[in-house]
Write a structure and sequence with these properties.
By secondary structure, the protein is of the alpha+beta class. The protein folds into 2 domains: about 5-160, dinb family like domain (Four Helix Bundle (Hemerythrin (Met), subunit A)); about 170-275, 2-Layer Sandwich (Nonspecific Lipid-transfer Protein, Chain A), CATH 3.30.1050. The protein is built from 9 helices and 8 strands. The strands form 2 sheets. Strands 1, 4, 5, 6, 7 and 8 form a 6-stranded mixed β-sheet that branches. The longest helix is centred in the middle third of the chain and has 23 residues, at about 135-160. The chain starts with a strand and ends in a 5-residue tail after the last helix.
């Protein structure tokens, strides 16, 4: 896989990427009027205010704070127990002003960075993560991926694009690219021998080829392969960083995603239908 700019992999650099995207959420929130905060986003059921509340809630919980108990109504966009857990921190903050929620995020971010920049912390230190204790580097990858996704939700709702060439953007793109072999072989249901190339054209640029092969039991498996030169019969899908990220986050349908294809249009659509890594 080619990727430019390269994604950070070590803890120090990951903390910087996390800090940058979370600060961007703070800055976007500061620039919002009341009507901006009420804008719906591409994340079902959530406004801009709710997006900021979600980021606050997760980081506050990881820092050891507990939200007060409140009753939560049934929401159509909450589909499972994980969704209920995520929604709770948003519900707690729905009665608070946007300024209060942004101020809370600013305060929590300072606490998180103090914790994460402790010199005794290493890549392999075990810290609290969103799914339980995990390696510090893994936790920072997960949090950078998630916060940047929600930063882009906010930017899209407000019509303020940006940070598509940041370290956090590279974390997102690399994370999705690493899952392409599985997504293409299984989710898209492609036959052995078929080759797909995903070309992310920028501002963060990435390119990866995947060939589908049959394993010993005859099941399709995806294998990463060089994208250049494209082999005969390959299907190449080209799309911008923003279009790739919105589709991979499940925020936009394939019909609403701008892309171009060299090769088989039907294969391209099946791949893009499967190109969703968040649920």
């Amino acid at each position: 896989m080619s990727l430019d700019p390269a994604a950070p992999a070590r803890l120090h650099d990951l903390v910087d990427a996390f800090a940058q995207t979370t600060q961007a959420v703070v800055d976007l929130g500061r620039g919002c009027e009341v009507h901006d905060l009420a804008e719906p986003t591409e994340c079902p059921g959530w406004t801009v205010h709710d997006q900021i509340s979600h980021v606050v809630g997760v980081e506050s919980w990881l820092e050891g704070h507990k939200d007060p108990r409140v009753d939560m109504p049934r929401y159509e966009h909450v589909k499972n127990d994980l969704g209920k857990k995520v929604e709770y921190a948003v519900e707690v903050r729905r009665g608070r002003t946007g300024a209060d929620v942004v101020a809370e995020l600013e305060d929590v971010l300072a606490q998180r960075l103090s914790t994460l920049r402790n010199p005794i912390l290493t890549d392999s230190s075990i810290i609290n993560g969103p799914f339980g204790p995990d390696l510090a580097a893994t936790v920072l990858l997960l949090r950078t991926f998630d916060v940047w996704t929600h930063e882009q939700d906010i930017r899209s709702a407000l019509g303020r694009p940006g940070d598509l060439d940041s370290r956090a953007a590279s974390v997102f793109v690399r994370t999705v690219m690493l899952q392409l072999p599985r997504l293409i072989a299984k989710g898209a249901g492609l036959e052995p021998g078929q080759v797909v190339i995903i070309d992310v054209t920028g501002p963060t640029v990435a390119r990866q080829g995947v060939r589908v092969v049959a394993d010993e039991q005859g099941r399709p498996r995806g294998h990463e392969m060089p994208a250049d030169p494209p082999p005969d019969g390959a299907t190449t899908i080209s799309l911008s960083t923003e279009a790739f990220a919105r589709r991979a986050a499940g925020r936009r349908s394939v019909s609403d995603t701008a892309y171009s294809v060299v090769g088989d249009d039907a294969i391209a659509r099946r791949v893009l239908e499967a190109l969703v890594v968040t649920h």
